[in-house]
Each structure stands twice: as C-alpha cells, then as structure tokens.
Amino acid sequence: PPIWPMAMVRAGGESSLAKGTVPLPLLSSGWYCSDQQPSVLISSPISNGVKLANSISAAGNGIGLPPRPRSRAKRHCNQTKPKQSPSSKSHGKEGDDSGRKLCLLTAIKPSNVEKEKMKFFKSDFTYNPQFEYENPALPNVLAKHSQASDRFLKQSINIMERTLQKYGSYEKFEQATGGSLLTKSRIWNHVRKYMVKEGCLGEIVVHLTEDLLSRASMTVVNGRPTLTINISTAREHWLEGMLRHEIGMISYSFLFRNSLFRGFNNNSQPWCNWNGRRKHGLKPINPTEEGLASIHSVLFRKDPFLWRAALLYYTVYQASQMSFSQLFQDVGKFVQDPNTRWDYCVRAKRGWTDTSQPGCFNKDQVYLDGILRILRYRESIDFHLLTALGKISYEDVDRLKGLAVIENMRVPHFLQDHARYMEHLEKIMEVNELTDEELQDLID
C-alpha cells in the first residue's frame, strides 16, 4: 500500500538541517513537539493558530528525513546568506546552466547591502552605493552579463503605463491585486494546500526567510527540490501564482528530469546532464523556463498585468545607462515606495562595486523576454510536452519528443484543461495590450 508522506517542519532553516539531527518517532496523534529541538512533525493540516519559526522546511518520506548532508545546489537561485569558496565561481562547464548560474548569483550578491542602504537613505537618495562581495565574480563573467537589450523596452513601458492608468500607482495595484501580507502560518497553509493539489506534498523542502532579493527561489539540493519564500513579499492573492511559478512549472521540470517520484533518478531523459544536452544539441533552457514560469505566476489573476517582468526589464536597461542614484530617481516614475525602488535598483546593479558608473546585471531581462517569445508562438507550442520533457527550450520540443521517456508523465493541474489555459494566455495578451502583429515583428 502507498505510504502517505508526512510533512516535517523544522525551525532554524538550512543550518538546523545540516547539523544532522534525526527526527524522533511520532506520537499516536501524529504530532511530536520537543523542548530540546525546535522541530515539529506534522501529518495533518496546520491550524491558523500555529506559529512557525522564521524558516521552515517541509519534506517527507513516510516518517522523517535522514540527516541532511552538506548542501550543493543544482539550479540557480538567489541564496540566503551565501558562502562559497573562491574556486567555486569557476565551477560548471560553458552551457551548464545549473551550477554555473548558482555560483554567479551567489557571487554577485553584495555583502554590505544594509550598510549601503543606510548611507543612501541618509543622503536623500544622492549617494551611489559602493558594494562589497565576499567572493566577487570574475570580470569576464560580469562583462558577459553587462549588456542590456532594448528590444522589448517599448513593451515594458507600455505595460507599466497601462497598469498605472487603471490603478493610479504601483502601491495601489499591489494592494488591490496582491492583497494583504500573509503571516508565516498562513503561508504554510497555502503552500501545503498547493502541494496537495499538485500531488507533491512531502517532496519539496520549503524555507521561509526575509533575506532574499527575489520573491522566491527554487533549487535542487542533493536531488531534493528546495523552495525558499520571501515572507516580506508573500501576499494573499499572489502567493499561489508564485507557487505556480516555482512548483507548478520549474519544479516539474526537476520532477520529470530527475524522476523525483521514482527515487530521485537523474536519468529520466537522455538530456538530463551536460553530456546529454550537448549530444542532442539542446538550446539553452532560458528564456523559455523563466518566461513560462512568469506567465503561470499571473495566469489566474483578474488583471494579469505583466508588471513585475516589465519593471525588471526596464530597470536593467536603465541601469546600463545610469548611475545608481539616477536609476533610483528614474524608477520613481513607476514606483513611489523608496524601499521597493531600492530593491529593484540593487537587483539591476548587483555585481558592480562602484555604482556611480552606468552598468547592469542583465539576468532580470529574461522574464519579459521569455514571456513575449512564448506568447508569440503560443498557438504552435505543445505546452504539455514542453512541461513534461524537462528543462528544454520550446524550440526543441518537436525535435525531442520522439526521444523522450514519457512513462509516468505528469503535468500541473492548470495545464490539464488546454482550452481554458489558452483562454488565459489570450487574456494576458489583451490586458497588456499586446498584439500578434507586434510580436511577429519583434520576434522571428
């Protein structure tokens, strides 16, 4: 008979898991609480009254997880409190999208953000931060990611202006469409319900933190998908969209590619590793992966404005032309709150030490780029196969479908009704005033 996975909630985050503490047996009621160890094993939904620690983990394999080895991430993300050896920056082959990007995003996270933020705010927003890095990325690596594109600049501006026309300000848009910020216990309840809906309860480790530049991030740590959620941005009506972004799409790529449901088998597809990708001539997974995930984050919203992707794209381009203080003032056309503006500007300027000079980190342009490419070819893309075949570009689907291992194929629940899914894509086009003619002119 099947074993229903328990959920393990452990305070202290990654550091606690790394200590190798072994979960104690459950009581007959299904609950275990310890004064000596800040952990709780849960086999039933958490009530709203339960207070969770700043960082939680949810995973399961029947009763509990074995001691967790030292983490080694497999996919790029903004990690919390990153530490790496100097040699780790160069790990990963050219084209190896996983290890290389993780190391890069770790290396470009400034170590003195709060100190420089205080200086910047005290200067009445005129000071240009001087960022420091524990293990800075190599100059040639930064140079590779310093070229911003203006290809979709007009569309990014139009999307934001359209949003402001309807809501008046970003802050009003955020409150009206995102709802109120959630408590930790409510975040956990939402996450658990979504995992039940997708049939992956107990398969994904979940952490809550306030130390993250993005809203959330997904990594694979020792073969186990790990989701980190920024609690300072977790809003009532946006959380499920974020879960669709991270779990519903990206982690499904991990599930199929790494056969999570069959014991973390990493050989599900012939292109599951770098040698396989090279052998089959696969294109890079981005912008497809981030574009599709970004679409899913707004899929069921009443007004699916592509605001965040548009603002990220715009901010990166402007950062390539401006100093930090100039960029901060410029972004004020769209965002009033200085703390929100600061966050966007730091993302666009990360990797740079002297921000008085024009310069950007261009990774954040991938979201809008990917969205528009997928919308451009939405009628010809087989979204079921694109999801099920793992970490591939939409351009490779037709070529690879005959080589794929498709047994036990699964797709997220929101992809199971194709007609409804396509209706949502049409609504995204309409709300953001995008036309097929426009996209065809921009994208070959």
TrEMBL record:
<feature type="compositionally biased region" description="Basic residues">
    <location>
        <begin position="69"/>
        <end position="78"/>
    </location>
</feature>
<keyword id="KW-0482">Metalloprotease</keyword>
<dbReference type="GO" id="GO:0008237">
    <property type="term" value="F:metallopeptidase activity"/>
</dbReference>
<protein>
    <submittedName>
        <fullName>Microtubule associated tyrosine carboxypeptidase 2</fullName>
    </submittedName>
</protein>
<keyword id="KW-0378">Hydrolase</keyword>
<dbReference type="GO" id="GO:0006508">
    <property type="term" value="P:proteolysis"/>
</dbReference>
<keyword id="KW-0645">Protease</keyword>
<feature type="region of interest" description="Disordered">
    <location>
        <begin position="59"/>
        <end position="98"/>
    </location>
</feature>
<dbReference type="Pfam" id="PF08014">
    <property type="entry name" value="MATCAP"/>
</dbReference>
<dbReference type="InterPro" id="IPR012548">
    <property type="entry name" value="MATCAP"/>
</dbReference>
